[in-house]
Write a structure and sequence with these properties.
By secondary structure, this protein is mainly alpha-helical. It has a domain of 105 residues: Alpha-Beta Complex (50s Ribosomal Protein L17, Chain: A). Strands 1-3-2 form a 3-stranded antiparallel beta sheet. Strand 2 and strand 3 form a beta hairpin. The chain is globular, with a radius of gyration of 33 Å.
């Protein structure tokens, strides 16, 4: 029976599980998102969120405690320099798990686990850039031709040649021509 067994052992020994979660937590902190199985992602969330909470307070003691879990100097440095700054105002829930379907080989449920404050698409920064680009691309045909002509010197030279004859061949007012025809008829 598994009464009061509170966490998933992931079919590993204690030392193997701790080292695996430590490596996955370091990878998550350095890369901001990793792809793994759903069971490992859920176990990693329980493992890494208290570490990120500890990193909010930048003291020697908290750095040593975090290093005892991660065993990776680069990950600890990244966590205290960048990640803790981004999550400073967040009360919890630093990670997000997105299910990505089943793995082909063994049909295991796969998931993407990521740090919440590092997904540009969901935060709206990338979406805003796309909206701005879409807004600048909506032009009439004439406006687009002008921007292309300005962009390349060869096209600008061709467009200036086309504009010169049009400017020189402006028609004279219609009324003086009518007077000349009437004087010839007389």
């Amino acid at each position: 029976m598994r009464h009061r067994r509170n966490f998933n052992h992931l079919s590993r020994t204690s030392t193997h599980r701790k080292s695996m979660l430590s490596n996955m937590a370091s990878s998550l902190i350095l890369k901001k998102r990793i792809n793994t199985t759903l069971a490992k992602a859920k176990a990693l969330r329980v493992y890494v969120e208290p570490i990120i909470t500890r990193a909010k307070e930048d003291t020697t003691h908290s750095r040593r405690v975090v290093f005892s879990y991660l065993q990776n100097k680069e990950a600890v440095t990244e966590l205290f320099r960048e990640v803790s700054q981004k999550v400073a105002n967040r009360p919890g829930g630093y990670t997000r798990i997105l299910k990505t379907g089943n793995r082909l080989g063994d049909s295991a449920e796969m998931a993407l686990i990521e740090l919440v404050d590092y997904n540009e698409y969901l935060l709206g920064t990338k979406a805003d850039e796309k909206k701005e680009k879409a807004g600048t691309r909506r032009r009439r045909g004439l406006g687009r031709k002008k921007t292309v002509a300005e962009a390349t010197p060869v096209a600008a030279a061709k467009s200036s040649r086309k504009e010169e004859p049009e400017a020189a061949a402006e028609p004279e007012p219609a009324e003086p021509e009518a007077d000349e025809t009437t004087s010839e008829e007389k």
